Amino acid sequence: MVDSHNPSAADVSAASSVEAGEERVWRAGGLEPMPIRPLPEAPPSIHLLGPTVFLLALGVGMGESYMWPRLVLVFGPEIRWLFLIGVTLQAVVMLEMARYAMATGESIFTGAARVFKPIMWFFFVTAILVYMWPGHLSAGMSAFEQLTGIPWVISAITVLVLVGILFSLASVIYDVVENILGFLIGILVVGTAIIASIAGSWADLGSTLAGMFAFGYFPDGMMSEQWFPIVVGSIAFAGPSGMQQMWYTLHLRESGAGMGAHVPKIRGLRTAGEQEKIPAHGFMFDTSNPEEMAKWRGWRKWITFDAFLLFWGITMLVTISFTVLAQSAARENPNVKDLIENGDRSAALQAMSDAFASAGGTWLGALFFGFISLIGINATLGLFDSFSRGQADMTYFHFPGAKKAKMSHLYAGFLWGVITFGILILLFGPADGPEGILDVLAFLSTFAMGAYCVVLLLVNNRMLPKPIRPKWWSNAIIGFGACFYLGMLFYCMIRFGVVDLG
Amino acid sequence: MRRLFLLTLPGLVVGFIAGVLAGGLTAFAGQPAGAAVVAALALGVPLALMGGGYTMLLINKRVRLGGFAPAALFWLIGFPLARLLHELAVSWYVAGTPALPPDTLGFLAFQGIVSLGFAIGFLWLHERMAPRWWARLAQHDDVAREVYLRYAGHAQAMFEAKERRRSRSARGLKPRTGTR
Known about the structure:
By secondary structure, chain A is mainly α. Helices cover 67% and strands 1% of the residues of chain A. Chain B has one domain (2-173).
């Protein structure tokens, strides 16, 4: 075996120190080296919608449908330039997450472990603490209760069990989830466009679009103790939040993007016996070969299309639609503005629905609640798959002795564990977590975002061969992200004593 | 007729689902059955017919496979028209006489802008459904086979074009020094 990574060779391409007759490897950090394998051809972007559906399912949530419409009603549409900054930053984070995953077929968690293993264990513990609570279901299922009269706890438990059964029966889990989410997000996009077309107006749309380019707009009230943490949280949570971007690396690998093609897919519990052995390490391609580098550029184009046209475009579209709707509802019923400003989410959603019902008939109010429910279901499907996939990945690769188990079994263990815990909490406990630790959970969620920016800088600049490392401007943007997420979190904590930015 | 229906089913279904969702949810909301049916069909049928029309244009090579610009242009006209029909039908059912929305030109212009969002969602769903559906039909239907092969050929052509660009740029960057 040839070690292609030594102090002086760290900047040299992976295959540069190859010797005939020995296996070529790329050594990165303290873990097993990555053998050199061919990089597959990139697909034409047009017909492959990619794993962005997971980010959309997780990211297009309450921030887009509630938090930003709320800020627009309070401060005016000009505040939306901050949303533009937040989503664009997330699109760049997405591109950089994809860099490591596509180059190695490893998750960003393993990348973090290559730098310093305790960083990965921090994310392992944070994921459990933050994401085991079933609170994310409450908003969607409360809307479903308004629509159907079925108590939200019953529908939430039903969704939990159905998700567990669906993921267990699936042959290849990724394919099933991608197809379902792809369909649901398509429906969400056409649906919100239709609602906006019925309830919105030319003036609302014009002011919302113009507001995106009102750079430098800082209204006085925004800097207050009441609003500053909320504005910062809304920017941070524009698009995917918490650990959602990190999970995206697992979906990229599972979809076979880049070197992920060399790693077998995770199977459902029903077909776990057919699960192929998953290698203990990722793979690297020959970065000194111009043909391989040309293929790499093809993959970067593909992911850029995904990040900017699909992720950025659809997130923008949904949030513009919901902002137009909130403006329209506030005009129909001034009470809506007060309720939204006061921050009572369920009362505000009910008032918005009522305003639409009075403007366009009962069915329009129902349709609005239907789409809030759909957002909740999308988030649940994406979250449960992502959480189980992430925890199973970290356990399988880094927990001593875990490789004796099949990846499918670990995935199923985490999936049914979080479902069982979720059902117990829905029946007997607080859905968002015990009140005493809510601030800790909120802190961890934002802290994880700053932490993954730092991890990205370390992993992409130290663990990858030089020819495929990020450009300076990309590093600068990710560095800005780290300073913004961590700086604002600690600023709000010290200045206002607030850590819950949501 | 049945053949035409089967061939254009992807566009018909996507358009119909988008429109009829409204009516389906109305039933949950306790709206009278008549209003639910009118709200659903008044939007669902025009969108379905136009969706089918888009698929037909695609089959007849009048629009580019998977391209956003042709779909956006198509719905820039189709979506405002469907919404206008919807407004007329609903007002007819509610008030007894069909009525145009106030400021009809402004209404149409606003619908035109929103149609861009609808076009993204329509294309997203259509591109997921149509190739798989035509692959199924291809065993029995020559036109479906032709359009499915066109999809496959299009992917191949894009791939080859990329390969050509790649080899040109490789030659530009690094002159060949030997034979392969």
